[in-house]
Amino acid sequence: MKIVLERIDNYLKFKAENESGQSLILDGRPAHDELKEGLSPMQAVLAAHSGCSSIDVVSILTKQHQDIESFKCYVDATRETGKDANVFTDICLSFEIRGKDLDTNKVERAVQLSVEKYCSVGKILEPTAKISYKII
Q: What is the per-residue pLDDT across 36-80, written as a single tens digit (0 to 9) for each?
């Protein structure tokens, strides 16, 4: 797996591109800056975490023939303060899953397996962050 990160302006905007040409814009400008065009690197980590876990959950439920009509994952995170690198200390993933005749037990088990066992990004974050989840 390879990523190339290239600066694309004269300030703090970068494009990360994979070997297949898909890309993501990272922007270090403050959130209130009208020129901000991308996620901050820490927001990208949260997006990767929710994406990784969501892919697990949808894959598990699809294999179990669960009919998912809509799916959202909300992330709420807290970072430590006052240090050189302010890592995440708490991350809560809230899964909103709607579908026809969804089996609640299967949904709960799929989310649990993802968060506690399968999500690689979550495993990277576990040493510093308490990771929790909710099902809406």
A: 999 999 999 999 999 999 999 999 999 999 999 999 999 999 999
- Per residue in 107-128, pLDDT (tens digit) is 999 999 999 999 999 999 999 9
The DSSP annotation for the chain comes to: --EEEEE-SSSSEEEEEETTS-EEEEE-S-TT-TT--SB-HHHHHHHHHHHHHHHHHHHHHHHTT-EEEEEEEEEEEEE--SSSS--EEEEEEEEEEEEET--HHHHHHHHHHIIIII-HHHHHHTTT-EEEEEE-
Residue 56 CB burial class (10 angstroms; 0-12, 13-18, ≥19): buried
CATH architecture of 41-135: 2-Layer Sandwich (3.30)
CA atoms of 74 and 90, how far apart (whole Å): 14
Q: Which two tokens stand for residue 115?
A: 């968060």
pLDDT at 31 exceeding the cut of 90: no
pLDDT category of residue 10 using cuts at 50, 70 and 90: confident
